[in-house]
C-alpha cells in the first residue's frame, strides 16, 4: 500500500476498495429477509431491501435472483457517496443511497412493488413493513409484534425450504 492506494492485479485502486471485510452476519440477515420477501411476492425482481451498518449499506447485487440469493451475492456500498466496496450493486443503487440519506436513522430501506420507498430502524422491521404493505395490511411498529411476525416468517420459510442455501455454511440445521 502506498499513499492510500493498493494494487489489485495490474490496477491501482483506492485502498478502501481493496480491503473491505464483508461481515457474514449482516449479509446472511439480508439474504434471509430478501428471500422471505421475494417468496411472499413483496419484492419484485428489481426491488431491493438494504441493511445499513454505520456508513455502509448491504444490498443484493446486480442480476441476483432474489428468491435464491446467497450471502455471496451481496454488494456493499458507502452511504456517503455510493462508492462500491464489494460486489456489483444494482444499477439503481443511487436511489437506495439517497433514501438512506433522507432517513439517516434507518437501518434499512426498501423499494416496494408499487415503487414506494419505505424505511425502518431495523432490517426485520423494514421487512415486516414491506410485507404488510404488499398484503394491504396496516403497518405495525412495536418491537415485540415485529419480532413475533419475523420469527413466524423465518419458520415458514425454513419449513418450505426457501432458506436452503441462504447461509454461508451449514447453519441451516442450527
Question: Could you walk me through the main structural features you see in this protein, from its secondary elements to its overall organization?
Answer:
- The protein is α+β, with helices and mostly antiparallel strands and 174 residues long.
- The chain has one domain: Class II aldolase/adducin N-terminal domain (L-fuculose-1-phosphate Aldolase), CATH 3.40.225.10.
- Helix content is 35%, strand content 19%.
- It has 5 helices and 8 strands, in the order E-E-H-H-E-E-E-E-H-E-E-H-H.
- A 4-stranded antiparallel β-sheet has the order 3-4-5-6, with helices on both faces. Strands 1-2 form a two-stranded antiparallel ribbon.
- Helix 2 packs parallel to helix 4 and helix 4 packs across helix 5.
- The protein is globular.
- It starts with a strand and ends in a 14-residue tail after the last helix.
- The N terminus is likely disordered.
